[in-house]
Amino acid sequence: MTSASNVRLVVVTGLSGSGKSIAIRQLEDSGFYCIDNLPVSFLTRVASDLRDHGHTRVAVSVDARSKSSIPLAKEQLANLASDGWDVRTLFLTASSPCLVRRYSETRRRHPLSLPNPTGMQEKTLPEAIAFERELLSPLAIGACIIDTSDLPANTLREWVRRFSDAPESMMTIAFESFAFKHGIPVAADFVFDVRNLPNPYYDPELRPYTGRDKPIIDYLDNCSEVQEMIEDISRFIRKWLPTFESQHRHYFTVAIGCTGGQHRSVYVAETLKKRFSDISGTVVRHRQLSRKAEKAELDASQSA
């Protein structure tokens, strides 16, 4: 069982359309166990259960649909804090004209403008926004308030990350070799064609090897144009990689293609992986070699 003092609870609340979904997704990406639209009355029970199951970082979003139980939130959060929890409340807001514009763009209905089962008259969008602002006002007291009216989504993600003291997300950089004759990987961010480089396939002695074998490595190591292309690709990626990191990307794939996906692309991908070994999370994958290995394994199992 994890002690309460080791658990952080981030409560995300605020006006509908102000960016709560973006905040929750960022917290989830940062390793928090996230629950969206949790009824206020469940706060203490859920937090305790998650702690008992070993979750040390928890985030919940609370919205105006809790209505009459909203005043209970302050009391429950105070109890959790007095029990040693690191409780942080993030309140997202935006101007009414901005919220109206966002709802107009998405064509979604405000949750408080939906027909009310108690028979109350249906609210217009501006009325629903004003009503929600009033309902949630107790939660804004003592919370960290962020006005997202003119805030880019990436900036909001970064502010949420800092608010929760979450470490910066590590980007996984994948260098992936492939064969053009089998198609370009759809998930590639950049594709480099190395079919113009000398091809070991045409040397009968080298043909059986792959770009991971010493004979191919020695052959391509001594090709000046191969080394020049690898240097150009490395320089290009080094220059533009920070712009992808600034967009809070978690995966970045560089595809290297040749004709058969066995010699040149494999060698270049392996060499690039070594050149970027200073960046944690760098991996290399070989589409055609993996398929070849799977086929060999299948054939062996069928013949056994």
Strand-helix topology:
Layout: E1 8-14, H1 20-29, E2 33-35, H2 43-52, E3 57-62, H3 70-82, E4 86-93, H4 96-106, H5 125-140, E5 144-147, H6 153-163, E6 172-179, E7 190-193, H7 214-221, H8 224-245, E8 251-258, H9 264-275, E9 282-286, H10 287-303
Parallel strand pairs: 1-3, 1-4, 2-3, 4-5, 6-8, 6-9, 7-8
Q: What does the model show?
A:
By secondary structure, this protein is of the alpha/beta class. 43% of the residues lie in helices and 17% in strands. It contains ten helices and nine strands. The chain has helices spanning 20-29, 43-52, 70-82, 96-106, 125-140, 153-163, 214-221, 224-245, 264-275, 287-303, and strands at 8-14, 33-35, 57-62, 86-93, 144-147, 172-179, 190-193, 251-258, 282-286. The strands form two sheets. It has a five-stranded parallel beta sheet with strand order 2-3-1-4-5, sandwiched between helices. Strands 7-8-6-9 form a four-stranded parallel beta sheet. Helix 1 (20-29) packs across helix 6, helix 3 runs parallel beside helix 5 (125-140) and helix 8 (224-245) packs across helix 9 (264-275). It is elongated. The protein starts with 7 loop residues before the first strand and ends with a helix. The mean pLDDT is 87.
